[in-house]
Design a protein that fits this description.
mainly alpha, 9 helices
């Protein structure tokens, strides 16, 4: 069984390598994981709160890798954090962090990977419009699960103010970058 569909950006790039299909899959998950860890460490100064590049990578990986490898990459990242490796934003880690206020967003990462991986496998991320819609759906799923979980900690009266509004501008910018980059990559790869 193959986990890397033949019509993804990763398979197009991998077709130029001299690795077996299984080696390519393992390499993509490893590279994706490294990108996730690095993106969680990069803080972009935004107002009113700084943001990381993490959701950009979370949303682009499944569009590049497909649903199985995209969700496996996110699952590996979450497992590393659960085991105590400081992979999350701010060097955070551990089960208490995952069960804390941001836990719903972390769960949303994996859920959006499944959705966006499927979206990408349907060739919907090859145009700016398709990539934009996919990334917006992915963000909506992350926000929905994040807000549901965060509301248990801050209440419904503050959840949007603390868990959505401060991040919308940065997320719109990330969608613009990702939705422009993906079709450009497809075009470059023919």
């Amino acid at each position: 069984m193959t986990f890397l569909p033949s019509d993804t950006l990763a398979s197009r790039i991998g077709s130029r390598w001299t690795l077996t299909h299984r080696q390519q899959e393992m390499l993509w998950v490893l590279l994706g994981n490294l990108m996730l860890v690095a993106s969680a460490k990069v803080q972009v100064p935004m107002w009113p709160v700084p943001t990381t590049l993490q959701t950009l990578v979370v949303l682009m990986l499944p569009l590049v890798l497909g649903r199985w490898l995209g969700s496996a990459t996110i699952a590996l990242y979450l497992a590393e954090g659960a085991l105590g490796l400081p992979v999350f934003a701010g060097g955070q880690a551990g089960i208490p962090y995952i069960l804390g206020p941001t836990g719903g967003y972390l769960t949303g990462f994996w859920a959006s990977a499944v959705l966006l991986g499927w979206w990408g496998e349907q060739s919907r991320s090859r145009s700016v419009t398709g990539a934009t819609w996919g990334m917006l759906f992915g963000h909506a799923l992350i926000y929905a699960l994040g807000v549901l979980w965060l509301s248990q900690f801050v209440g419904w009266d503050q959840v949007l103010e603390l868990g959505v509004y401060p991040f919308v501008l940065g997320d719109v910018m990330k969608v613009a970058v990702g939705a422009t980059a993906l079709p450009w990559l497809w075009k470059k790869l023919g």
